[in-house]
Amino acid sequence: MIGFISEKLLIPILDFFYGLVPSYGLAIVALTVVIRIALFPLSAGSIRSARRMKIAQPVMQKRQAEIKSKFSSDPKKQQEELGKLMNEFGSPLAGCLPLIVQMPVLFALFATLRGSPFADVPYNINLKVLPQDQIAAIDPKPYKSPRHSIFVTEKSHFPVIATLPNGTKLGSEESVKINLQTTNGNNYSEVLSKYDNGSRFLPTWTVSKGSENIKVS
To answer: Which sequence spans correspond to the domains of the chain?
Structure first.
């Protein structure tokens, strides 16, 4: 979902602003402003809900204590009355809902900025090396990484994913080839060959952790 929002919504908006003002710095500022304006009703609703609950909380706590004291011998009636009280004042968790709704958009914004032309972000894939006797008992499941936008030029970019047909769990003596492709299924290297500077964006893999168990060749 986050990759879909980034690729289908945020990056096109970013491209639109870059077309108006050929500066990705200003385009990103404009994109951020658009997102804040779009999310403002949710943010404002959350703030209003928090303020209401802060004012109502002392009264609500007093009423809760009275109900628990009055119906201490009748748990069923106590829960019924507490439910009525909750409907009267509203759930304290209601103010969290707007924040939860915003989270995918904010994560998508972060993912979009990770792929901007000046974002030098490593593309990490976590592999787990296991003894051969454990590998035999594992049902391999294909792995597909999150989308990562590659900006070949300031105006040309496309999303890339890494795939591992047999998953990320390897036997101690096994080797694996990481396949990079676009979301349309095109080979990453073939797409790069269409650009004069495409060779600059060919991947070079290094082991960031666990070099005693794995090597790149």
So the answer is: 2-114, 128-201
